[in-house]
Design a protein that fits this description.
It is a single chain. The chain has one helix and twelve strands, in the order H-E-E-E-E-E-E-E-E-E-E-E-E. By secondary structure, the chain is mainly beta. It has an eight-stranded antiparallel β-barrel. The longest helix has 18 residues.
């Protein structure tokens, strides 16, 4: 329950940063689904690499018009996956894991034609690692993101977005993660935990 409470506070705070802007600016709400390529951890005692399964993601984006060619952006993005250790025959599951991003930033729009724009941008926020395993604690770290893609208008209030996201979470690779009762078994593989994602979403503009 505590983890859910913290996550809800992230969403509420960052969303209010956008919706509290002047109401004259149009707002886009974009629910999306995607597919994420994930990073790695290391088992402390054995040095075995632990991979987060590449898997589907879900989330939403809120865009707020800032100028004619730019928008402020908030992204909430969640991946529910499995952490696996490489075995002699097939990967062995260690435990389920959720990885969430709470990011705020902005994008710049470049017209392609009268109904389509390309976009690129960047953001900053929080990465939240949450193991679904009894006794193991979650961990949050600051992170950066880069984004790009295409937005296409179908009507004045409806469209779709195809996007690409890069997430980078700076960490100390010697720092342990997922600890239970003071005992830590896993650490980050490198000093930058990275994930890549493609997604598609429905634009609701009002």
């Amino acid at each position: 329950m505590k983890i859910n409470y913290i996550n809800n506070n992230y969403i509420i705070f960052l969303t209010l940063c956008l919706v509290s802007l002047p109401s004259i600016a149009a707002t886009e709400v974009i629910p999306f689904s995607g597919y994420r390529i994930s990073g790695e951890f290391t088992e402390l005692n054995t040095g075995v690499s632990l991979d987060v399964d590449d898997s589907n993601t879900q989330g939403f984006i809120i865009n707020k018009d800032y100028e004619a060619d730019s928008q402020l952006e908030f992204i909430y993005n969640k991946q529910s996956s499995v952490l696996r250790a490489a075995g002699p025959v097939s990967p062995n599951a260690v435990f389920d894991i959720d990885i969430e991003y709470f990011h705020i930033g902005g994008i710049v729009l470049k017209p392609i034609d009268k109904s389509s724009d390309s976009f690129f941008g960047a953001g900053i926020g929080i990465t939240h690692f949450s193991p679904d395993f009894s006794g193991y604690g979650s961990k949050s770290e600051w992170s950066l993101s880069l984004t790009g893609g295409i937005k296409r208008r179908i009507t004045e209030h409806l469209g779709f977005r195809i996007g690409f996201q890069f997430y980078g979470t700076p960490v100390n690779k010697n720092t342990a993660i997922f600890c239970s009762n003071g005992s830590c078994d896993i650490r980050f593989k490198s000093n930058l935990y990275t994930q890549y994602e493609t997604n598609i979403g429905l634009i609701l503009r009002f």
